[in-house]
Amino acid sequence: VVTGATSGIGRAYADELARRGLDLILISRSIEKLHTAAKEIESQYGRQTHVIQVDFTKGPSIYPIIAEKLQGLEIGILGNVLIPGTKYLCWRQALSCNREQLSWSLCAVNNVGMNYAGMLVYFLDVPDPEKSITDVINCNMLSVAQMTRLVLPHMLERHKGLIINISSEAGSQPQPMLALYSATKVFVTYLSRSLTAEYRMQGITVQCVTPCVVSTNMTHNVEVGPLVKSASAFAYEALNTVGYSNYTSGCLLHALQHIALCIFFPGWLRLSTFCMRYTEKFAQSWRQEIEAMMARSAKKAD
């Protein structure tokens, strides 16, 4: 199961999982984009797909719909991944084997997420803050908890399962002018790490992935470069960390950036008056460029 599966990191994970021989359930907001993604995955990788159309900003009302549509399905890529000749499941081997070696695997990728329309902004300086705050919380926090609630019982029945929750580097330190988004990612990180402790003895792996900047619609398709990963490259490297780490930046480049940020740009500095003044000036100076990037991103999406 992959949420937010029609673009960005979610689509990249879907493609990479299909390439590695797994069938998929794709969940996202746009039915047209879901059908397009499903057809492309089936054509390119020869895997079966199911699609579920919901808007995660709508809150609790959507989860009975998802639960109903999951009933009766062998939940696409949900089941056990078994390696012939081994006694215990190894996710590292499972995600690198070919489809002839695969039985059904239980895997869920909680990727869906959103930010304000812009990059750096004061908490209340967004259009319709009441709606924006609710939408971000529903999409970034409630979705992870509720989707985990839906898939975890299936995993516990079979004593095997993999849940991948996409958090963010933004959740590793306080982020003024990105306050709500970074706070929601702290929730994802702490929930994931706590679930790891609760369920690992029952065969469940919960991995928390905390990327830095990846070129997606959320980052306005920023140009790939020395510090920026493409979504496809990131998903490939991040999946290769499964079985090695349950809390990961996803790739070596982002792990090095995380270390550098912790050393040279720690939380106390980000919260200082000096840094706030600089951040505000930076946001103002880049506002036109950000708006141009948003326009290009919207045009590309259309």
From TrEMBL:
The keyword DNA repair does not apply. It comes from the Eukaryota. GO terms for biological process: steroid biosynthetic process. One of its GO terms (cellular component) is endoplasmic reticulum. One of its GO terms (molecular function) is oxidoreductase activity. Keywords: Lipid biosynthesis, Lipid metabolism, Oxidoreductase, Steroid biosynthesis. InterPro entries: NAD(P)-bd_dom_sf, SDR_fam, VLCFA-Steroid_DH. The keyword Nucleus does not apply. Pfam families: adh_short. This is Inactive hydroxysteroid dehydrogenase-like protein 1-like. The lineage of its organism: Eukaryota, Metazoa, Chordata, Craniata, Vertebrata.
